[in-house]
Write a structure and sequence with these properties.
The protein is of the alpha+beta class. It has two domains: about 20-105 and about 295-369, no CATH class; about 110-290, Galactose-binding domain-like (Jelly Rolls). Helices cover about 25% and strands about 30% of the residues. It contains nine helices and 18 strands. It has helices at about 5-10, 15-20, 25-30, 35-45, 50-55, 85-105, 215-225, 310-325, 330-350, and strands spanning about 110, 110-120, 140, 140-145, 145, 160-165, 170-180, 190-200, 225-230, 235, 245-255, 260-265, 270, 275-280, 280-290, 295-300, 305-310, 365-369. Strands 2, 6, 8, 9, 10 and 12 form a six-stranded antiparallel β-sheet that branches. The longest helix has 22 residues, at about 330-350.
Length: about 375
């Protein structure tokens, strides 16, 4: 409107920041950054994309100091007139814009994709940890559950370790269902006294696809040395009931690395046959919000530094393959894929100007976290 000034130039910086931080959608903040050169300098110079990301996902603040952008979503053209500090600010701007959008997927879903390891298994493979990935306590006429080994000591804990659907997830709930032995006298329920969970990442290259619940005690003991745990939850009391018990977290927990372990603390049920205490679980679910499929995380060292990679074409190709195989043909999936692709193109166009295309798979974008 004629006669109206640019508020970024007319107002004090603090007031302009207050106005722009009212934006909740990273797309809007990106659009604001291309309104004019002064707006772009203001948005990038004050780190507003980073501010938005940490405001919407405060869980990231604990690792934000480890974020170092080593490359960009779009290669930065060398310009002698721009300082190295400004180039770093531009990289941060793009990194946090994509990260915020990647975590803004509002759909929560089941996040477990594979069982990795059980601290003990009574009868392998009939009572394997793999059974806990299947809803319910029966498959046809066969009982479906994991059983620990028997113990005289009720304080001996057990652990179940899983691979998550993404190496970067916001976990909001853990669901655990104790198993009721309907084939034993009295229908005993082999629950634990309490549970807690840990998240982390491998510190060595390892096979996380196989169930190792039948390994020797020595092998099981060495397994914990392969994982760097970055978060341990408080303990939650478990009821001795044959229901899917839901443990909702006060705040979502950020898992970097894609490994989650359920710790089962204390034993309450003795088996009449041998007089030993067991823990049996029929089902485990992890509900959360994984990073959008176009992102992947590679752990770089034991300290937790990791590389956030972005390869849109590869992930979209994978989605198309799944769709062609009939794995997902719902309208919701179509809308999700279209919105992802549209957002990728929009942000690249606004960052580089109209006509920019998403990079090929050969030039995967990478960020150090």
């Amino acid at each position: 409107m004629e006669g109206c000034g640019d508020f970024v130039q007319w107002l004090l910086p603090d007031m302009s920041i207050k106005i722009l931080t009212c934006l909740e959608d990273p797309c809007d903040l990106i659009r604001a950054s291309v309104v004019s050169s002064s707006w772009r300098q203001f948005v990038i110079g004050n780190g507003l994309c980073k501010h938005l990301c940490l405001r919407r996902f405060p869980e990231i603040s604990s690792v934000a100091n480890m974020i170092k952008v080593e490359n960009t979503v779009v290669p930065v053209v060398s310009d002698p007139e721009r300082s190295g500090e400004w180039l770093c600010l531009e990289r941060d701007h793009r990194f946090y814009a994509f990260l915020t959008q990647g975590l803004s997927n509002s759909m929560t879903e089941e996040c477990l994709v594979a069982a990795i390891h059980a601290s003990s298994t009574d009868n392998y493979p009939e009572e394997s940890i793999l059974n806990t990935l299947t809803p319910g306590d029966r498959i046809g006429r066969r009982a479906s559950y994991w059983s620990s080994g028997g113990q005289n000591d009720t304080t001996v804990p057990e652990t179940l370790t899983y691979k998550l659907i993404s190496k970067l997830c916001l976990i909001s709930e853990i669901h655990v269902q104790p198993f009721q032995a309907y084939f034993q006298f009295g229908f005993p329920i082999y629950s634990a006294k309490a549970m807690r969970f840990r998240v982390g990442h491998p510190n060595v290259k390892m096979d996380v696809e196989s169930d190792n619940g039948h390994e020797s005690a020595a092998a099981q003991g060495s397994y914990s040395d392969k994982i760097v745990w970055t978060y341990t939850s408080p303990s939650f009391p478990m009821a001795q009931e044959n229901i899917l018990q839901k443990f909702k977290l006060p705040e979502p927990v950020l898992c970097i690395g894609g490994i989650l372990q359920v710790e089962l603390l204390g034993r309450v049920q003795r088996q009449q046959m041998d007089g030993l205490y067991y823990i049996c679980i029929s089902q485990v679910q992890v509900v959360g919000r994984p990073l959008l499929p176009a992102f992947d995380v590679e752990i770089l060292d034991e300290a937790g530094k990791c590389s956030l990679k972005y390869h849109p074409e590869e992930r979209l190709s994978e989605s198309r393959n799944k769709l062609s195989k009939g794995e997902s043909s719902s309208p919701r999936f179509h809308r999700f894929r279209a919105s992802l692709r549209g957002w990728e193109q929009m942000i690249l166009n606004t960052l580089l100007g109209a006509g920019a295309d998403v990079a090929d798979d050969d030039s995967d974008e990478e960020f150090g976290v």
